[in-house]
Amino acid sequence: MFGQVLYTQWKWARTELFLYVLAAFLVPTVIIRIGYSQVDAYSISNVLGVMGFAGAFFGVLALVCAFGLAWRPYIIDASLRHVGPLSLPVPWATFVRLRFLAGATLLLAPTIAVWLGGVLATATTVIPPTLHAYPGGVALRFLFAAMVAYAAGFLLQYVAGKHAVRVAIGLFFAVILIALASNLLGYDNLLLKAWDLLTTWPGPFSIFNARWMLIDV
Amino acid sequence: MSDAIIVRNVTYRAGKEFAIRDLAMTVPTGSVYGFLGPNGSGKTTTLRLLLGMLPVDDGTISVLGHDVPAGVHKALAKIGYVPERLHLYPTLTVEETMRYHAAFYPDWDNARAENLRRGFALRAEQAVDRLSKGESGKLMMLLALAHNPDLLVLDEPTDGLDPVVRRDVLAALLEYVSARGATVLISSHLIHEQERICDHVGVMDDGRLLAEMPMAAFRGGIKRLRVSKAPLDRGDLPFTLLSRGVSAGREEEWVVRGWQPAMKEYFVTAESELREVIDLDLEESFVELLRSARLPVVVAGEEI
Q1: DSSP 3-state of B80
Q2: What is the DSSP string of B121-145?
Q3: Which CATH architecture has domain B3-206?
Q4: How many Å apart are CA B90 and CA A75, to the nearest integer?
């Protein structure tokens, strides 16, 4: 069952998955090449600056991959009124679990591309003394970040169902309203505190705040 | 197990406008049960309730000995379902769709599936979204039959198909049923098709099951009577009066259910004259049944 669910989800997502993999593979090399051409490759602070910029890209890519893979199967099932899954002789919870695991498995493809791209980029780059390459570390962070975002997107989609987009937009505006209200009431740091709570350990999104450095001390 | 499907006092409300009300139906094991009703009468909703796709508000459902929804997954392994609309993933090919379904059904028969695919002239590499309506109908029937189901639940399986494809689909269905003795619940508004293949019939309208009986009783039990000097007495009719109207002069036309030849005696004792008993075909019977359910019988300005 898992194999077939994985295959269908791969077939639906293969074009975008190819783009994710391509981006994940090429961008470390491209960023390092362009970044290094602008700075002194033997200057540690310059190199770390370029790596920090590249790190932000990995976080964004993890988010895009995760939400794309989390939402697409639900949207396809919903367009067929979920009749296919509901008429199969497995409980709904089992089917949803299979969907989740299949999407999570597909996230391995861009993760491997991040690792391979990182290995290639760092292997063909001058690394200043005292600095080291961490393609495996960045790939692991990418995987964890993508899994967290994937789980959040999947949960939102399967709990909110056809209202997921509206809920997501509602959340976005709610954040803006809270920011405005807290500003008007003099609680300037209310939203920042909430943001910190979510993005610093042990917050669920703290992985996005981690050091995504392909080359680091 | 004598009945494949047992539904008791089921109520389901879908929004403010439509509800299934106090539904009770029984589909005997081995029967081909035709589920008749106009569009929007609640047939598809009822089938979805039977398969656990919708939650009942009240009442009980048992399918193949399993309570729904608690045991519906065990039942679904033995049910072949053809929904009203195409429910297959458009980007998969015919072969991929078959493999996908095979993975979920423990009794999937690859040889049978392949035979059906060849018999239906479906190309394995054809994408589902490139199939014609007829080919889609064939593929859905293939998927419903390939895991040797004990019960087939078919929701308008031949609706919109051309006569050749319809014949192929029905032939495959009947061949399977005769070989396996499976039970079939087939919803359709193609009455003549139902008349040919069904041995039991249930008629639904506006969320209610109006009648449920063997096909022979349905076909033979509803008659149009031409009555002269029609009696006014309303309390002692030996049959169910579905409709009553003036035909010509003092002659009236009655449509009755549960007619038996011996009931002619009633008119003698009521001092009226039964001039003619007219057989109705299934479609006329169906229409009269619906009409009687929607309009109350009025005698001498009074509803009965």
Answers
A1: strand
A2: T--TT-BGGG--HHHHHHHHHHHHH
A3: 3-Layer(aba) Sandwich (3.40)
A4: 13
pLDDT tens digits, B277-286? 888 888 888 8
Reported as a single tens digit per residue, the pLDDT across B182-232 is: 999 999 878 888 888 899 999 998 899 988 989 888 877 788 888 888 776
Strands B151-155 and B183-188: parallel
Helices B163-180 and B133-145 pack at an angle, to 10 degrees, of 0
| Yes or no, beta carbons of A86 and B52 under 8 Å apart | yes
Beta bridge partners of A39: none
| Closest by Cα among A147, A185, A165 to A65 | A147
In this complex, how many residue pairs, one in chain A and one in chain B, have their CB atoms less than 8 Å apart? 54
Closest in A7, A12, A89 to B104, CB measured: A89
The more confidently predicted of residues B41 and A41 is B41
Query: Chain B contact for A129, CB < 8 A?
Result: no
The residue among B226, B239, B220, B238 whose CA lies nearest residue B279 is B220
Distance CA B119, CA B136 (A): 14
Tell me if B76 and A88 make a contact (CB, 8 A cut-off).
yes
Q: Where in chain B is the domain with CATH 3.40.50.300?
A: 3-206
Q: How far apart are CA B133 and CA B140, in angstroms?
A: 11
Confidence of residue B130 (pLDDT cuts 50, 70, 90): very high
Place of tokens 């859905």: B140
- Tens digit of each residue's pLDDT (9 = 90 or more) over A120-166: 988 887 777 788 888 898 899 999 999 999 999 999 888 877 777 78
Top residue of B66, B100, B155 to mutate, by most chain A CBs within 10 Å, is B100
Token pair belonging to A193: 């505190």
For residues A174 and B198, give the distance between their C-alpha atoms in angstroms, rounded to a whole number.
58
- pLDDT over threshold 70, residue A41: no
- At residue B149, what are phi and psi to the nearest 5 degrees? -70, 150
B37 and B286 in contact (C-beta within 8 Å)? no
Residue A15 forms contact with B (CB below 8 Å) = no
| Interface contact B89-A7, CB threshold 8 A | no
Buried b / exposed e over A81-100, threshold 16 CB at 10 Å, is ebbbbbbbbbebeebbebbb
- Residue closest to A140 by CA, chosen among A53, A205, A212, A203: A212
Q: The pTM is what?
A: 0.83
Q: Which helix (H) or strand (E) holds A78?
A: helix A44-79
Exposed, middle or buried: residue A12 (CB in 10 Å: 0-12, 13-18, 19+)?
buried
Report CA B184 to chain centroid distance, whole Å.
Answer: 9
Which band of pLDDT confidence, cut at 50, 70 and 90, is reported for residue A197? Answer: confident
- Between helix A44-79 and helix A2-38 the angle, nearest 10°, is 150
Beta-bridged to residue B153, according to DSSP, are B81, B185
The beta strands (E) that lie in A60-105 are given as none
Residue whose structure tokens are 């039970």: B183
Polymer length in residues for chain A = 217
